[in-house]
């Protein structure tokens, strides 16, 4: 199963987006860093085990980072 994550561009001079995952409430790890023009990322469900949380961060030209509220789904997505 493929899950397509999408988001809207925030105001400001965004240079990139960082997508992170956390499994069962564990540590966050970077899944991908995407250009500012890309507002979606596909992830594949590899099993029904665990719970995968996602968070998307906007990286601005001045180096600051804005992180959206985390969300998640049952299963392991990679």
From TrEMBL:
Annotated InterPro entries: FN3_sf (IPR036116), Ig-like_fold (IPR013783)
Gene3D superfamilies linked to this entry: Immunoglobulins
Protein name: Unannotated protein
